[in-house]
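Discussion board: Methods & Data

I've been asked by a reviewer to show the raw model output for two of the constructs in my manuscript, not just the figures. I'm not sure how much to include, so I'm pasting the format here to get opinions. Each protein appears as its amino acid sequence followed by a line of C-alpha cells. Is this the kind of thing reviewers expect to see in a supplement, or should I convert it first? Here is construct A:
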Amino acid sequence: MWYPSTVIAAPAVEPVTLAEAKEQCGILSGETHFDTQINRLIKAARKHAEEYCNARFAEQTIVSQCDSFADFARLSEGPLKSVTSITYIDPAGDEQSIDASVYDAHKDGLEPSIGLKYGRVWPRIRFGSRITLTAIYGGQAPESVQHAMLLLIGHWFVNRDAVVTGTIATTIPMGVDALLSNHRRGA
C-alpha cells in the first residue's frame, strides 16, 4: 500500500508559460500588473490537472512510502523520470539504501514500476516499517493537458469569486474534463 506522497522539490518550470496564460486571459504581453495572479493561477491549474489525472505534468522530486516491495509493481506516481533512492529499515533497525544495480526502473508512461534485475532479491525489512522511494516524476505535459490548464486559467481569471450571482452557469461541452480524461492514471 502506498501512502500520500510529499513533493520535496517543486517544479522549476510550469507546463504553461506566463505569456501563454496572459494571451488566454486577453492581457497584452507588455502589461505586468496581473503577472503575480496569473502565475498563481498557472500553478493552481497544474495542480488541478495533476490531482484529476493522478499524474505529474511538471518535473518534481517526490518522496513516497509503501509497506512492501510488491507495491513497486505499480508506483503511486507517474510518469517516472528517474529514481533518486530507495531506502528501508533492516531487521536490526538500521536504515539501508538499495543500490541501483539491484533493480530496474520501468518508465512505462503513466504506469511506471520498479522490478528486480535478474538473479537479485529484495532485502528483508523490519516488520511494520516502510520503504521510502525518492524519485523524479513529470515532464512534458501533452497539448490537451496544456489546453485544459489554459481553459481553467482563463475561467478563473474572469470569475474571481467562488459564487457568481445573476447568471446561469453551464459546463462547456468538451471542456476541461474531456481534455484531461485520456491522461488519467488508474481510472
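Construct B, same format:
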Amino acid sequence: MSSGASTPSGPEYFVRGINDAEARGPFKLEQLTSLAEAGQVTPETFYYDTTTEQWLALGSNAELKAQVWPEKKRLSFKENAYAAEKKPGDGATAITVQQFLDAAEGKTADTKGKNDGSLAMMKAAMWGTRGAALIMLLSAVVLMLPSVDAVIAMDLDKLLEKPLILLGVVDLVLGVLLLLGVISLYPFVRFRAVFGLGFLGFILWSQGDYTACLALAAGSAGLYFSTILVSYVPLAVALLAGIGGMAALASLSLF
C-alpha cells in the first residue's frame, strides 16, 4: 500500500472512512478531487501515509487538502446550499485512535465480522522495524566484540588498529534508534545493508572464509528486506535470515 509515492503519472492514495472495512484505491490526485466533488470523500476521510505509516485525515494535510478542495471551488458554494448538502456525521467530533482501530479490526457494530488487510500490513511493518533493530544490534556485536577490551578501556591506539569498530558503533546507534521507532532511517539502513555486503563481504572473500560470506549475505539481505516487506510470511523469512546470519557471524568473531 502506498501514498504519495512518485510515479510517472503522479502520486496515488488509498482512502477509507472510519466504518469502512477495506481501503479504496489507489486514486490519483485528479480522481481524488472528483470523489471530493461528488461528496464521496471529505476532509474527515482517512488516507494512508507511507512516510509515517499511519492513517491520517485528509484535512490534516494542508497541502493535500488545498489540492483536493481548492479555495476557488469552495468559494463557489453558498453557505446555505453547503449546509443543506452536509451529511449528518459532518459535524461529529473527531474519532479517537482506539475507535479507528476497533473499526479496522471489525469490532464496531458497522464493521463486525470484517477485517482490513491494511491493519495487518501496518502490524507487520512494526515487526519489521523491531527485527531490523535486532539485526543491527547483532551486527554491532560482530564488529565490536573482537575489540571489546579496547572499547571498555577506551584505548584509542588499539581502536584505530581496527577501524571496523567505528562501523559497529554506527550499527549500535542505528539499532537503538530503530527500537525507538525512527523509521525515517530506513533509506540509510538499506544503504548500510548493501555497503556491509559489499565491503565486509570483500574482506571475508579475500580471506577465503566462504561460510562467513554466506552468513553475511543472509544477514545483509534480511536487514534490507525487513525494511520493505509488509506481509508476515516473507517478512518472517527475511528476519530469520537476517538474525540467523548475523548471529552466526557473532559466534565466529571474525573481525
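Answer (T.O., handling editor elsewhere):
This is acceptable in a supplement if you add a one-line summary per construct. For B, something like: Residues 73-92 have pLDDT under 50 and may be disordered.
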